[in-house]
User: Which sequence fits this backbone?
C-alpha cells in the first residue's frame, strides 16, 4: 500500500513539473528592450546585420521602460505559455487594449470600446532569445502590412490610430517554456503605448 502511494505521488510530482515549467526571464526581457532601442536609434545599420533592407526608415525616439506594461506583458506571455495558445486575444477573446485598462495603464477610451482590439501589442513565439524575437518581429515575414515592424520602430500608418511615432512607454516579457508541454519554446510580448486620459 505504501509503495503504491509513493509511486502515485512521484508520478504526480514529475507530471506537474513538466506541465507547468514556464519561467519569466527578466534578463532576456531587458535584453530585448535594449536591442529594440538600439534598432530604433540606428535602424539602417541594425537592419543590415539581419539582412534586411530599410532604406527610408528614420531613427525613432528611445522607448522608456514601464513597469506596469512589463507586468501586463508578463501576464500575457505566461498565459499563452500556460494555456498553450498563440494569439493577440486570450481564451476569453480579450486583447491588449482591454488588458491595459484593467491592468491600471490608462489609455484613451476610444481604444477600450471593444475588448477584442489590439493597438499596442506585438507577439512572438519560438525564438531562443529576446533579441532574436525582436529581430523576427522587425523582419515581420509573412505579414503584408508589416504591422509589427511599424509598431516596434515607431512608423506611422498613412491612416489610422494610434500614431506609432507618438508611443514611448514599453514593457517586454520573455517567457521560457522549453521545459513545458507548450507548443513553443518561448513566448514574447512587446507592449508600446502611451498614457492618454
Assistant:
Amino acid at each position: 500500500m505504501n509503495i503504491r502511494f509513493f509511486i502515485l505521488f512521484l508520478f504526480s510530482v514529475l507530471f506537474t513539473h513538466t506541465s507547468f515549467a514556464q519561467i519569466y526571464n527578466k534578463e532576456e526581457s531587458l535584453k530585448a528592450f535594449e536591442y529594440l532601442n538600439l534598432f530604433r536609434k540606428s535602424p539602417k545599420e541594425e537592419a543590415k546585420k539581419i539582412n534586411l533592407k530599410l532604406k527610408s526608415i528614420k531613427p525613432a525616439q528611445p522607448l522608456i521602460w514601464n513597469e506596469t506594461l512589463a507586468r501586463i506583458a508578463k501576464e500575457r506571455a505566461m498565459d499563452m505559455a500556460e494555456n498553450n495558445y498563440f494569439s493577440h486575444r486570450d481564451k476569453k477573446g480579450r486583447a491588449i487594449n482591454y488588458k491595459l485598462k484593467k491592468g491600471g495603464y490608462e489609455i484613451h477610451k476610444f481604444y477600450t470600446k471593444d475588448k477584442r482590439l489590439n493597438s499596442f501589442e506585438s507577439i512572438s513565439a519560438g525564438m531562443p532569445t529576446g533579441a532574436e524575437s525582436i529581430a523576427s518581429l522587425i523582419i515581420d515575414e509573412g505579414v503584408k502590412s508589416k504591422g509589427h515592424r511599424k509598431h516596434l520602430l515607431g512608423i506611422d500608418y498613412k491612416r489610422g490610430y494610434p500614431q506609432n511615432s507618438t508611443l514611448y512607454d514599453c514593457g517586454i516579457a520573455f517567457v521560457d517554456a522549453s521545459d513545458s508541454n507548450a507548443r513553443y519554446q518561448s513566448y514574447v510580448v512587446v507592449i508600446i503605448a502611451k498614457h492618454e486620459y
